[in-house]
Amino acid sequence: MTLLDHLDELRRRLFASVAAIFVAFLGCWYLSPTIFHWLQKPILDVLPEGDKLAFTDLAGPFMLYVKVALLSAIFVSSPFLLLQLWLFLKPGLYRRERRLAVPFIVFTTLFFVAGGLFGYYVAFPMVVDFLLGVGEDFKQVVTIQAYFSMMSKILLGLGLVFELPMLMFFLARLGVVSAGQLLRGFRWAVLGIFVTAAIITPTPDIATQTVFAVPMILLYLLGIVVAAVFGRKPEARE
To answer: Using an 8 Å Cβ cutoff, are 183 and 106 in contact?
Structure first.
């Protein structure tokens, strides 16, 4: 394929992805209040009984439900989005590598959703507990905009972070890296992980960054094991 062919293919895949998100958005919009009722549970569990999230402008709840529907649509349509990614990469793969289509879509979707669930059940509640603990001497007025902005960044960020083992798997299958190379670069990987955690973490404290960094390190180690088991052998690379 020429460069123009690749650009045209990218345009078609992006259009299909946007269309899928839009269709999922329409379905999620109807359920937005129910979804947000579930999403706000981590903070309602620690707020004083009877306290609620606040909004400061009339359009606040409407814009909140739009963002909730969009976030939900991304997770709902993730299998289709990852399929479009695979179809874009497919022309550059060998025939034996194209057989990995189903494992790619299934496992990348599972890891993405697992990252979001980890963010909701583990990482985000820890962030909420820490931040509310710092401000326990003050009257907290948490707005729905600030709350959902922080939550969405954590859920999407961890969803992408959890794709690390799949990325390492395919790089190993393509012969780009080996398990030995990944293991030798572990120290640099840890440094990169903490830098990444500092970027996606909504607060600058080391405790919250560690909440993000430790799972990433474990995922990196899992990726090394996956690369050792499923990576292309040296003779195959040659």
So the answer is: no
